[in-house]
Design brief:
The chain has one helix spanning 70-74; strands spanning 8-12, 19-28, 37-41, 47-50, 56-59. By secondary structure, it is mostly beta strands. It is globular, with a radius of gyration of 12 Å. It starts with 7 loop residues before the first strand and ends in a 9-residue tail after the last helix. The model is unreliable at 66-83 (pLDDT under 50).
């Protein structure tokens, strides 16, 4: 999984697909975009160091709004963004 500052992270309940957590990546610990991430969670406005699991999806800034297939969220980034 790779994310960039500003990307949205969505954590879902495994059985139902209901959103448990929704947050925005506000900091990276690795320049290549691999975890962990500093995430500001919408519900609490708190920032946590977050290690995503298999129930986490990344919605990149340049992707249209809508569901992101899990395989796409786990795939390596094909477009370089620098940094």
């Amino acid at each position: 999984m790779k994310a960039h500052v500003g990307d949205q992270l969505v954590v879902e309940c495994p059985g139902t697909g209901a959103v448990r957590l929704d947050g925005k990546v506000v900091g990276l610990h690795h320049a290549d975009g691999t975890p962990p991430y500093d995430v500001r969670w919408a519900e609490t406005d708190q920032v946590w160091v977050f290690f995503p699991g298999s129930d986490t999806r990344v919605r990149h800034l340049d992707c249209p709004a809508g569901p992101v297939p899990p395989s796409a969220a786990a795939a390596p980034d094909a477009v370089g963004r620098g940094g």
